[in-house]
Amino acid sequence: MSITAQAVIDRIQRKFGPGWEPTPVDAFMAGKPDTEVKGIATTYAPTLDVLKKAVASGKNFIISRESPWWARLNAFGGGTQFQGLPSVWTNGQDYVRQEAGAAETDATLIAKKQYIEANKLVVYRWFANWNAQPVDFQLKGLAKALGWEQHYKPSGGYPWGHNNGFFELAPATLKDTALAIKKKLGVKSLRIGGNPNTIVHKAALSHGMYWLPDLQKLYAEPGVDLLVVGEPEWENELSLYSFDVADSGQKKGYIVLGQQVSEEPGCAEMAAWIKPIVTEVPIEHIPAGEPCWTSS
Amino acid sequence: MTHLSRREFVAMAGATLAATQLAPAQAPKLTAGEVVDRIKKNLGIPWNATTFRDTYKIGSPESPVTGIVSTFGSNLSIMQKAVKAGLNMIVTHEPTFWSDADIIDMVKDDPLYHFKLDYATKNKLVVWRIHDHVHSHKPDLIWAGWNKGLGWEKYLTGNDRGYVIPPTTLKDLALFLDKTLPAGTKSIRCIGDPNLPVTRVATGRDLTSMGMDADCIISSDSREYNCYEYARDSVHMGIKRGYIYIAHEAAEDVGTQEVANWLRPLVPEVEVRYMPTTDEFWGV
To answer: Which of A129, B90, B116, B226 has the fewest CB atoms in 10 Å of its CB?
Structure first.
């Protein structure tokens, strides 16, 4: 039995149900939808490295959280991440500039296009609708990766819903908790704010890009003394908010994982979600890995 | 142009100071409004009255000024240090209430907003932001401060954001920045071969600047999901280019030292002190 990339997406939409919204984000970003699928790889980012690993293991269909072309501008109007934010942020020239894509003549863009064409790969970005599910699988995947599932203490609301990632941990210092997180996630670096000796025990966990309203909601949860988050939108404002929290005398810690580290485990959940409905071909999660090294 | 030259102004301000010393009882106190007026008159460019950034965040033109702090971000820790130093006017480059336009609607129910505002009010602080105009100043004071702080003025290639520096490696350049920038760069992150030879350096920020023709791009305030992913694809395909990502404060804080140097002669009545907004992150 053979299956095309389009047929895989049709099955995903059927399983998803009637709430699927057409968006410019959830779309084929490269390749032909009628390509016969030999295997599926899910990933946070379809980097050249991930594409090569997919090819090496005989997979030609990549379903990714981010775009192969490194831009999110197409999220305007379709994504959920800009909803409810003041227009002074989202309409500003500065913002549009931040989100602009690479030039058509860019050497890296050309090389990546050529690699995708030469290997007849298909890349589909699944972002907005994946996020729109009542269960936040990105959150659940990250909690699993941390080994925190059994410590989950939702704050009312929908279990595993968005901005509902609260956990009762064994009390430990911020430093030891950070070390445990680093080891568990296998990452090279974490960025930590707050006094290393502060005892923390109730964590608010988040993933991906966060904005001021997200931070405020997480800090406002009673008893929360540790934030573990993805990537700040406007580093100078949001990290400074957390430094101000600490400098106001509150005994709270703040750990920034980074976008990829915080989002990759959820992409394993994506593979697990698709597996039961596509039995014809192998499905595997290929992590993009941590992008950076540190000098210290 | 109606504004005074810096020399004329300093001479006049010096005369004012002398008069103050002779007759302290009648001396009008320096106000924040007077400081801001002198800044506007001496910028050498027309003041853009529509800016939402370069405005009072706490206090008003009538607020008396005992001394001035120039810094990157009006963090609570900077306020605390300013109070301790007896300098009550904070001239900040970046926001006070955690959004670019200091949108009060977003924080009016936030206890941290009230804590910060109460602390500032109780200690008679005045916070005024100058961002757009120090960047528009000729030269851009923030970049002038970066060049001076790194000792890189002599390596400029003409374009004020490109340099040819003595041969080094990607890793050593990262270590140099860590050691040299007053804000520190504890959250420094790199992409590329640590041993990559580097001499041509460019500075960038968003995705469109990540493909510049240079051995190394030093970047701050960059988004990970686009810039970092582009960077590692470039490196993976064999382009000999490295990337050093530093915190926003690490990149611009050093420039606020230049703002202090520029401001000092305009307000001889009080101390003007550069106070680094340090990168407060640590790692394990």
So the answer is: A129
